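Recall the central idea of this unit: under ordinary conditions, the amino acid sequence of a chain determines the structure it adopts. In this exercise we apply that idea directly, starting from the sequence alone.
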Amino acid sequence: MADDHALRLVKPGPPGAFLQKNYFLSNYNLEQAGAVVVPAVRTAAVLDAVGDRGYRLVNATVGAVAQTFYTTAAALGLGGGVALGFDTVSFVEELDLAGSGEAPLLIMLIGHERPGSADFRYEIA
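Accordingly, the structure predicted from this sequence is:
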């Protein structure tokens, strides 16, 4: 039960195929990530509580979560990435979130950094 503040198994088995299938971009391979964290928010409940300003509150919270994730990954010497290009509806179904009213707003990937993975030519930017 979610109320006991503990991790719980939602679905047995490796999640890599689901993650990659429901990610729309090609900049990350979710099957190769060490872990994928999916923060979810009850946006409708926030809007009910504080009105339209709730959108700003939700976005500020999600931004703070993403920034903390990046900072923590860097401090641990790990590679981290945050992505938006995913099928939210599929994640709600896969993570069994429909009953709680939660919706995932980001997917956050963490794992060992691959050597030589960046190929950005700053002189032509």
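The two ends are 50 Å apart (CA to CA).
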